[in-house]
Amino acid sequence: MNNDTLQYKIACEQDEFQQINSLNYQTFVEEIPQHEENDTCMLVDKFHDENTYVIAKADDEVVGMIAVRSERPFSLDQKLSNLDEYLPDQAVPCEVRLLSVKEAYRSTRVFYQLCNRLVSHCLKEGYTMALISGTVRQLKLYKRIGFLPFAELVGEEEARFQPMYLTRESFENSTKAFQRLMIRKTGALTTRSFLPGPVPRHKRVEAAFKRDATSHRSSPFLQEMEVVRESICDMTGANHVQVAVGTGTLSNDMVAAQLKKIQGKGLILSNGEFGNRLMDHGKRFDLTFHTLEKEWDEHITVEEIETVLQCDPAIKWLWTVHCETSTGYLYNIREILSLCQKYNVELCIDACSSVGTVPVDFNKVFLATSVSGKGLGSYPGLALVFHREIINPSASIPRYLDVGMYALNGSVPYTHSSNLLIALKEALQLIDYDGTLKISKNVRRMLADEGFQILGDEDYSPGVITIALNREQCSRQFGDACKSRGILLSYESEYLIKRNWVQVALMGEHKEREVLNGMTMLIEEHNRMIGTKVVK
Q1: What span, in angstroms and rounded, lies between the C-alpha atoms of 528 and 536?
Q2: Less Cβ crowding at N or C end of the chain, within 10 Å?
Q3: Dihedral sign (CA 89, 92, 97, 99)
């Protein structure tokens, strides 16, 4: 059994409660004889209506559970008449019961993750202490997780229990020891990457990349290049695409070099970091252009764009990002293209974060750019430049930036990488727009339900989900805390730190179950940060 792919959540569905009753019976009737057998093989807890159940699920199967309630009297009150004498002053206790995991899934990690989710819930509800009657069979495990014993053993001879309690401090101290234990056992902490680059890659892509390198002048390589370019054009509707060794910055420099040849002015749109970078590209190439700038994440309307085009008929080109990666904002390219055609303006698009993430159509777009990483799900290192018309070499453009040189030489005018090319070829076969959209909607809904402030809505890119943290929370500390648990968020760029934002990028290879598990851990860390401030 792969315990790393289990989902930990609060039970809320009828089928989950039915499985809880079944697991309750298996554990506390058949395994630990606390209750009488019955014909239904179901055991509904006497506090069922008051319980909140934290569960572990393998697909649709409930394989572990733990229940928490705060209503007094606790079951432990019936076993210890002087329970309050053992509790600190001002304690806000809850009781934890029914800790159970199916035999095939029993491990320190599963027990720990159930308790981890439990502690997050307790912090959110304002509890300062969780009480439990720990079976003497598992005392070592309870202590490892952070439970501390108090009072004498309780219960009948055949079912003895040790009263124990868990606080945030004792759990966090045990967490450090637990993580060291897991690293010793597995060799490393399991990581889930939600970075916009480098992105998680499919095993097939990684295997392709590891093949022996071949000469970029060999016939097999040139044939592979042709196949890759045709595949990219088929996917994007582009007439032509050139593949260079480089990054998205290089591809945009190549576009700027082409715009330099156009007589007339331009217009660059910006409502975020990468729109600003397009303006910087334009300045470095000494292009003449207007800008339509808005505050970050503020909508730029077609009407506003049209007003600028009407005011200056000398505008001959418009340059914009498609997905503004700094926020997830997604421009409506179809409307902008229609407007450009109306005013005889050439449209250029930075689509580095959208190709492979959302469907695109570059058939009538003058120039566009993308990369082999990000949405295409391969390794970074290849820059893509799409063009509608045939482009010839230009002596006024530096050789490496001259799209015409690539077009003239089948995209191989200079040294190339067979490893990057074959990995990209494999990645192109794995694009799943519907899968990415489905996962993104579930993540947005999950985070919204937990009270996170998320930029935009489902009209934004499914590949970039931006979380705006409250002022009293620190995005860098939050990102560091998630990283310590193997959840890699995008948060270390200066523009994100400045705005106290973190991002969940869903580009590359992602499995829904693993993503939702990662979001559960993210939520736990967030609740722990809140709890650190409000729970004494």
Answers
A1: 12
A2: C
A3: negative
3-class secondary structure, 247: coil
Can you give the length of the chain in residues?
A: 536
DSSP H or E run through 240: strand 240-245
| Strand runs labelled E in 61-142 | 61-69, 93-101, 129-135
Read off the DSSP letter of residue 138.
G
C-beta atoms surrounding 202 within 10 Å: 17
Q: Which two tokens stand for residue 153?
A: 């053993």
Scanning the structure block, which residue is given the tokens 């070829």? 425
Spatial separation of the C-alpha atoms in residues 22 and 162, rounded to whole Å? 25
Q: Pick the closest to residue 113 from 523, 510, 477 (CA basis).
A: 523
**Which of 182, 162, 178 shows the shortest CA–CA distance to 170?**
178
CA atoms of 202 and 146, how far apart (whole Å): 37
- Pick 120 or 39 by higher pLDDT: 39
Among the listed residues 315, 34, 304, the one whose alpha carbon sits nearest the alpha carbon of residue 154 = 34
The closest of 144, 149, 76 to 111, measured between CA atoms, is: 144
Percentage of the chain beyond pLDDT 90 is 68
CA angle (338 as vertex; 336, 343 as ends), nearest 5: 95
Pairwise CA distance, residues 103 & 96, whole Å: 20
CA gap 312, 327 in Å, rounded:
30
Q: How big is the CA angle at 271 (ends 251 and 314), to the nearest 5 degrees?
A: 70
Dist CA 162 CA 165 (whole Å): 10
Question: How does 350-368 read in b/e, with b if 16+ C-beta sit within 10 Å?
Answer: bbbbbbbbbebebeebbbb
SS (H, E, C) 496-519: HHHHCEEEEECCCCCCHHHHHHHH
Single pTM value for the model:
0.71
DSSP secondary structure of 91-105: --EEEEEEEEE-GGG
Question: What is the spatial distance between Cα 101 and Cα 107, in angstroms, rounded to a whole number?
Answer: 9
Rg (CA), the chain: 29
Burial degree of 261 (CB within 10 A; 0-12, 13-18, 19+) = exposed
